[in-house]
Amino acid sequence: MNTLETHPRALMLVCLAALAGGCTAPPDPGSAPATVRASSLQDPQFVTAAAANGRYEVQASRLAMYRAASPQVRSYAQMLVDHHTRANNELMDLVRARGMRLPGVLPRDKRTKLDRLASASGSEFDRMYIRIVGIEDHQGDIALFERASRELRDPELRAWASKTLPALRSHLDAAQSLSLGSAMR
Fold first, then answer.
1. CB distance 146 to 130 below 8 Å
2. d(CA 142, CA 153)
């Protein structure tokens, strides 16, 4: 009798071959971080990441408008809400014009960051918000948008990414100034 049941070694080889062939469960769209590290940035990847990052930064900044202890941090948060809401609306117009759809939920890593921020208060909240949203997230945004401005195929998306970069850089600069200033002490 030459079946797989009588040949455990053959069964193991078949299983290993299946695993090596990429037999995995489909990815959970809510678990993928909103960053893109593929060899070549594709338009849908950028749109998905940019939209998720923008929505997250608006939500985090709305939280900061009410939770921040420092008036300077609250003012910074209001600026981010205004700028990112405007940029998100522009992106949504581009997305709709192309018949694309975006996930309705934030990626898990962004939800986790929002939960961490929501658990902080006072000057601890201010420091976390500026470090995470103002500095770390904007550094990631800038890297993503720089790649997009070079690599995207769609000229309007590429132009939008290029046009948005100066605002992202100014957000990072403002956050770095706040982190060094008296507002964070």
1. no
2. 19
> Rounded to two decimals, what is the model's pTM?
0.77
Model pLDDT for residues 68-102, shown as the tens digit of each residue: 999 999 999 999 999 999 999 999 999 999 998 88
Dist CA 89 CA 138 (whole Å): 19
Place of tokens 């008036």: 71
The neighbouring-strand residues paired with 122 are 68
- CA 77/CA 98 separation, integer angstroms: 31
| Residue recorded with tokens 């550094």 | 139
DSSP string, the chain: ---GGG-HHHHHHHHHHHHHTT--PPPPTTTS-S---SSS--HHHHHHHHHHHHHHHHHHHHHHHHHBSSHHHHHHHHHHHHHHHHHHHHHHHHHHHTT----SS--HHHHHHHHHHHT--HHHHHHHHIIIIIIIIHHHHHHHHHHHHHH-S-HHHHHHHHHHHHHHHHHHHHHHHHHHSGGG-
Instruction: Please choose, from the candidates 40, 32, 8, 28, the residue with its C-alpha nearest in 3D space to the C-alpha of residue 153.
Output: 40
